[in-house]
Structures are given as C-alpha cells and as structure tokens.
Amino acid sequence: MSASDLLQLAVFLxxxxxxxxxxxWYMARVFTGIVPxxxxxxxxxxxxxxxxxxxxxxxxxxxKQYSFAVLALSLVSVFAVYILQRSQSFxxxxxxxxxxxxxxxxxxxxxxxxxxxxxxxxxxxxTMSYLTEMLALAVQNFVSAAAGMAVLIALVRGxxxxxxxxxxNFWADLxxxxxxxxxxASLLLAVVLVWQGVPQxxxxxxxxxxxxxxxxxxxxxxTTQTIAVGPVASQVAIKQLGTNGGxxxxxxxxxxxxxxxxxxxxxxxxxILLIPAALCGTFGEIVGDRRQGWTILxxxxxxxxxxxxxxxxxxxxxxxxxxxxxVVGGNMEGKEQRLGIANSAIWATxxxxxxxxxxxxxxxxxxxxxxxxxxxxxxxxxxxxxGVGSGLYGMLVFAIIAVFLSGLMVGRTPEYLGxxxxxxxxxxxxxxxxxxxxxxxxxxAIAVMSDSGRAGIANPGPHGFSEVLYALSSASNNNGSAxxxxxxxxxxxxxxxxxxxxxxxxxxxxxxxxxxxSLSSKKRTPTSSGTLPTHTPLFVVLLVAVVVVVGALSFFPxxxxxxxxxxxxxx
Amino acid sequence: xxxxxxxSILVLLVMxxxxxxxxxxxxxxxxxxxxxxxxxxxxxxxxxxxVGSEQIGQSFSEAKYFWGRLSATAPVPYNAAASSGSxxxxxxxxxxxxxxxRIDALKQADSAIDSIxxxxxxxxxxxxxxxxxxxxxxxxxxxxATARKIDAKVVSDLVKQHTQPAQWGxxxxxxxxxxxxxxxxxxxxx
Lengths: 571, 190
Description:
The complex is a heterodimer.
Chain A: H1 3-31, H2 43-53, H3 63-86, H4 103-114, H5 130-160, H6 170-196, E1 206-215, E2 221-227, H7 232-241, H8 262-287, H9 290-316, H10 320-323, E3 327-328, H11 340-353, H12 368-379, H13 390-410, E4 415-416, E5 419-420, H14 423-449, H15 451-455, H16 462-476, H17 491-520, H18 537-570
Antiparallel strand pairs in A: 1-2, 4-5
Helix pairs in contact in A: 1-8, 3-4, 3-5, 3-17, 4-17, 5-6, 5-7, 5-17, 6-7, 7-8, 8-9, 8-11, 9-11, 9-12, 9-18, 11-12, 12-16, 12-18, 13-14, 13-18, 14-16, 14-17, 16-17, 16-18
Chain B: H1 2-34, H2 36-39, E1 43-46, E2 49-53, H3 93-109, E3 116-117, E4 131-132, H4 134-138, H5 141-148, H6 152-161, E5 163-164, E6 175-177, H7 178-188
Helix pairs in contact in B: 5-6
C-alpha cells in the first residue's frame, strides 16, 4: 500500500471513530426518551404523530406484540411499494412516462426495500418514476432502517432492565429513530451532496447535443445524449445513512451524478458506517457500562481493518492478462477515475461490512480475492457494523454464543451483562446464525442446479458461480450489493432472492426479539469471581474467533469453488 | 391484531407524508435556492445549445479528440439514460479483447506509445466516467496535436489547464475532464 492509500484510509476512519461517542450518547438519549436540548423543538411534532396514530408511547409491548408490530408494518409496506410500482404510469411526477414495473420485479423490489436490503434487479433511471422513488423507495429507506434500530434498542433493553416482560413500544422507537436521527442527518447530508454536484430536481431528463456524434452498432447516427436527473440527493442521503444502498441510478454511487467528487465519496462512505458504529456507543450507554460498547466496537474493527487493507492490496495488483499487453496500473475495470482504486476498495469493504450494499465500483470486475472479501463479509451475517440496528443485534447474538462457548469450557453457567444465558437463548441464537447461512448455501445450490438459475450467469467459469453465490449471500443477509453481471431480473431470481430477503430479515429479527423478551424478564445476577468479564481484550479475541470460525467453516467450501479457484487460474 | 394493522397503515401514511413528500420537497427547495447549477445536473451550455454535463462523459473516437474511459452502456457508449459497468470478471476473454482493441487504436494513431495507463483500456463503473488520469491524457497529446496540425506544446498546456488536482490536495486522485478538454480544444481550433 502506498502512502496515498494510507492517507485515504485515515481520512475515512478517523472521522468515523470520532463520531462514535457523541452520536452514540445522543442516540441513547433519544431512545430512552430524554430528548437532548438542541432538538427539543421536534417534540411537538413527535407528540402530534402519536395522536394521529393513536399510540401511547409509554405503553410497553411484550416481545410477541413487538414482533407482530414489526411484521404488520413490513407487510403493509410491501403492499404499498408493490402497488405504487404497478400503478406508476397513472400517477403524477412521472416526466419520463415510465410504464408499470413488471409483477415479479415489483414483488422483489417491494420486499427488498421493506427488509432494508435494497437489492435492485432493475435499473433505476430506466424503470422508476420520481414519485415511486420518493413515495415508495425513500419512505422504506427511512422506515426499514428505523425498524432495525428499534429492534436493536428492544434487545438492549432486554439486557438493561430486569423482571419485566415489556421491551418498549415499537411505534415510539420507530418514530424517534426517524424524527431525531435519520431525518435531520439526511437533510443535512442531502444538501451537502447537492453542493458537490448531486442533482435534486423534479424536471424531466435533459437532451444534450453530443460534441462528436456516435455511430451505433446498427449504423444509425446518434447526435444527442439523454442525461437522467431527478430528486437524487434526497434519495442518496438516506440510502447511505439508513444502510439501505438502493441507488437512484443503475450504476449506484459509481454514477458521477450520484457520487460526483472524492468529497461526496468520503461523506457517503462515512455515512454508511456512521450509525452502525455509533450504536455500539448507544449500547454501552443504555446498559450502563460504556466498556461493553467499546469491546463490541473493537471486535468489529479487529475484523474490519485487516480486510480493508487486504482489499486495497488486492485491487492495486495489476491484472496479469492486461499487464501482458503493456498496460500499467492496478485493477481499474468497473472503477471510476475520480475515486481511484483505494477509495473503491475501501467502499466495497465498508458497504459489505455494513449491510448497505451501495457500490461505487462494480464488484463483479474486482480481482478474485478482492471480490472474495466483500462476499465473505456478507456471509459472516452482516454483523461487522452491519445494518443500522440489525448489525449490532446480530453481533450481540454472537456475543451470547461466545459467552456460552467459554461457559462450556470452564463448566459454569454463562452470563452476559448480568443475565444468565439459558438453553432458550442459545436455541434462538442458533436460529439467527443458521437460517441465513442455510439460505445462502441451499439457495446457491438450487440456482446453479436449475436451468433458469444458470441462465442468468454472465461470466464464464468459476466467476459465474461467484455471481450466484454473491447474489444469495447479499439477499440472505439483507446487503443488496451484487456481482451485477448476473441477470437477476427474471421471475426465478426475483422469486428466490425475494424469499432469501424475507428469511434474512425476519428469520433473524424475530428470534432476536424472543431473546430480548426472555432476557428482559430475568433478574440481573451480581458478578462473582466466576463471571467471565466481557469488556476485556480477551473477550475481543474470543468474540472475533467465534465470528471468524463460524463464517469460515460455513462458507470456505463454497468460496473455494468460486473466487479461490479463479485466483489460481489467474496465475 | 387488527388494531396493530390499523396502526401500521396510519404509521406508513404519516411517514410517507414526512419522509416521502416533505423531506424531498425541503431538500429540493434548499438545493434549488443554494446550488441551482448543481441541482439541475451541472449543465454545460454554449449560447442556447446544451452541450452536456460537467459530470457526465461523452464518447470520443476521432483522432482530434481526447478519448475517455471505455463505456459498457447499451445501445451506445456513454448512454446517460442507462448507466452500467461491463461487469466483466478478471478472467473474462472479453475484458482482454476490449483492451486490445483500444490499444490497437491508440498505437495505430501514434506508434510511439509503449506503456498504456490502465484507465484508458478499462470500462468505468458507470459507463459515464467524465475523467481520465493525467498519464492517460499525456499519451494522447501527440495524436491530438498531429490530427489538428498544431504544436504539441499547445495541446499539452491545455491538458495542464484542465487537470483537476486531488480534491483539497488529498482526497481521491487527480484527473482530466475529457469533455471539457475537448470543448476547449474545439474553441481553440474548431
């Protein structure tokens, strides 16, 4: 790695880590209902919302009611997003006269956005009307992210409180997350992005006169260029802050109008990890022991930083096939010149560590090992930062497994944060880990064994297998990025990946809420000499080992068939 | 149960008004007031003719123009209504084939070229990348100067003028905006 690469890395990591403590504290305040002074003026709006939706924010729900509320909102959301796409041709704000989206694609996209995945089988600027972008997709960007945060806070409450069955009010958590966190941050980021060159307009696409006319393959001469614009900045801001990742344009944040400058790139990269990282701080605040939050954050960084450095290294290597032709430089296929190789590699690692899934370079064209890392980060279960809320609740489940394993080793009843971990929690935790794993592997097997699954593959050889494995890893862990050569906008993939996204979201969320309910009703046991301290470097090692071993054992055989063979063939 | 579904519908309606209507409207208002040029797509207008956008590249293949990144958009390159990368894997023969074609074209026009910057032979992620590296512009100076029958020094100075350094000196990397450079060339010598 060159000095310049290190500088890009430092400029990205330092502001991110500096924000953890203040933002973590702020979010802890918001979710415990003690609104900090500078945003108190939002409170009347919050109260007004509770009156409209007829909810008492202080009435706690037990874990079943909480789960049902999440499911009900998701169901209603899927319907709304589906109907808006199917009827967009009759609705206003459709200056490009987009026709209705196909039934299977609408189904896939509705699930994708309601589950915070933002897998996109369609190309944004050639499919969606401005109204669909705003009313269907952006709304889900907020709501699904806020729902993820709400479930995390419910789990954290399970640790923090004792002898009660209530784990908070979902509607209040959802409203607070949106009003005090996502909305103000998005508004600010959107305006800064416009300053850097991201469009924000309701006008139709522009027709430019080409400087040099193009002769198309069919012999016709093309003299104009249609430049797609629209309400882009408002979509991009929340797509990053809510770890959604769904792009306004097909090329996502590789598109110069979605990510015009290195500064817009830096702000978006930091935004991807900002809230997931800061929630570690929030966790420490709410359980009343900040060291616990720092330990989790440290574990994430121990996995994240080496992978970050490796991805940069792999992408900086020249493709030998091109080097043979006298070409000089690292892997620039699918990357943008203004951003460069280092920033593309950092983004790829960050977007898959988080369950964001936006891209600023085409992962399908990464070097074999450079593409393996993003894929493996998703397969770990989106817990290294992960999605807003969903990442940390996944990591806390791994923490429960880690104390359980160490309990087995020394023969004592495991405890985490003063709560005894019993068979019930371990069963639920196993579901959280196994369901997405099984979905990835079984789904990939089904896809590569069926004709309609193989029909979507674009690249020959092991890379084609990687495309399918990547798609299932992405959907089953609610990431949303792709090896985009795969033609996934077919009834087969729209259906299979739709199912994968449902399993990845609710197959994790509901067991987590069950754990929250169970922990919440338990008494806190005082620490004794036999308690494993969970705020030490030793625990970081233990937690990282559990995560890596589970991830490696589950996926190494599949990865060997794809990127690893490909790397060997490249020599 | 029914109560929760009713609440869900109400919540979604409220959130739609807040985050689907008021939020984008507010951003649009700020954007159009504070940064109207960027908010409308950073357009380049000459007289009453729209030439393009500062952010969006165009396809160039004539010897008298600088060439940009390869573009994988369909049906024509640099289609700004359907952005796309090539998604070619590192071992895909088409990747090497595309690079070879570009190298041949470069060498045909200027046989003195030996080492070729990688950004000139690879497709960008968006298919619309407006920039090339400074080295990629330099290897084209001789060709453009010969085609236009002007001094290479003049062309090379123009490249320097249109080189954008790394943002704030340390973010990203330096590059040359191909469309702006070619427009400037045409202004110098139509």
